Amino acid sequence: MPHQPPEQRITNFDEVALGYSMDMAVTEAMRCLQCKKPQCVKGCPVEVNIPDFIAALVQRDVEKAYKVIKGTNSLPAVCGRVCPQESQCEGSCILGIKAEPVAIGRLERFVADEFFHRDACDLISDKPECPLIDEEKKVACIGSGPSSLTVAGYMASRGCKVTVFEALHELGGVLVYGIPEFRLPKSKIVGKEVNALNDLQVEFKTNAVAGKTFSLQELFDQGYKSVFIGVGAGLPKFLNIPGENLSGVFSANEYLTRINLGRAYSFPDFDTPIVRGKKVTVYGGGNVAMDAARTAVRLGAESVHIVYRRTQDAMPARKEEVDHAVEEGVIMECLASPLEFKPGEDGNLGSVRLQRMELGEPDDSGRRRPVAIEGDIYELPTDLAVIAVGTRSNPVLLESEPDLKLNKWGYIEVDEETGETSMPNVFAGGDIVTGAATVILAMGAGRTAAKEMAKRLGCE
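^ that's the sequence the OP posted. Answer follows.
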C-alpha cells in the first residue's frame, strides 16, 4: 500500500497509509485462493466472510463486497486501519505459509472507503432499508467506543430506540482520544460512522458520566429495557518508581487525549496545552507506546526513545507500527528498565536512570524473562516521559454499582455466550470486561451482546 514517505509524514498528522486504488485492490484480491475451508474466517473475531467479499471485489462489485463485510462487522473502515490482522485473519491465511498472506485488512479498508458515500442504513448496518423505530424498545449504551457503537448500529438497524451516553464531549471513545489522527482520521472515518448512526435515529448524550450523572437503575426507571456497558479501561498504570511525580512525566492516556481529543497538535487553531519535549522517552512496547512516540516526533522532538525491557522483536505492538516508528527516527532503547526519574536544574524532569537488562529463562507466558545485569546502570537525558505500560478498569461506574460482579482484576464478569452481567438485562463488553485489547475484539463482544438483546426484545 502506498504511504507518505517518512521525511514528509513526520511533519504532519495526515494519515500515513494512503490506501489502494481500485486496480491495486483487485490485483491483491486475485491472490486469494478461495479455500473451501477458509481459516481466515476462523481467525476473525467477528467472522467476516472473507472469501466472499474478496470474490466480489475481484469482480469490482464494491457494493456486494461491502454488504458481505457489514453482515458481521459494523466498523470496517476502522478495523481495516487498526486491527492486528497479522495475528488474526491474515495470520491464518494459507498463502502465508510460504509467501505473503492476502492483505485482507487493506482490502477491507478499501471496500469501506469506496462505499462511504452510500446510504446511511447500508453504511452502518446489514439491513437494506432504514427500519421504523419502536420507541418502546429502548436500549441504552454507556460509552461510545467500538463495542457500544457496534451495539447501537445492530439494535438501531432492527428498529430499537438507542441512546448512547458518552462521558466526554466528543463521540468515539478510544477511536477519538486514544488513536492518533495519522492512524485513524477522526472526521473522515470515525465521524462518518457516528453520523450514519445519527441517521438511524440513534440519540447521543455527551458529558454524561455513568455512576455520577445517572445510575443503571435510573435508566431502567426511564423505560430502557436493556443497558450495554462499554466504558473501556481508561485508568492508567504507572511505573511506581521515584520521581514519577515530576513535571514532565505523563501517562499515555493524558498525553494522547490532550493531543487527539484536545487537538493539541493543531495549535493555534486549538489552544489545548501540551508539553513539546525535546528529548522524549516512552515506556512500553505496545501500540500505545508507538502512538505516543510517533506523536512526539510530529510535535518536533529532537530525539524520541522507546524504553522496553525486552528486545524489539518481542514488542507486542503490530510489526507495521514498530517499522513505521523506526522509519520515522524513533530509537528503540531495548533491554532497559527505568529505575528513577531525576529532576534537572529547573526542578522539572531532566533525566531517567535505566537498568540494563538481559534475557533469562522463559516466564509463564513462554517469553524469556528480562533479568537485570548487576551494576549496569546508565542515565538518559529526557525532558518528557510518557508511560504506556497498560491500563486498569475505571472505577467511576463500578464503585457506584455494587451489584455488578467483578473478577479479581476489577473487570466486569459476563456470560461469555450472551455478554450479560450479574445484573439482569445489563450487558457489557470490550476492555471493561477483557482488559485492554483490540478494537475488533471489543466489536465482537458488542455483537454478541447485541444479538442477545435483540432476541429478548423481539427485534432480531
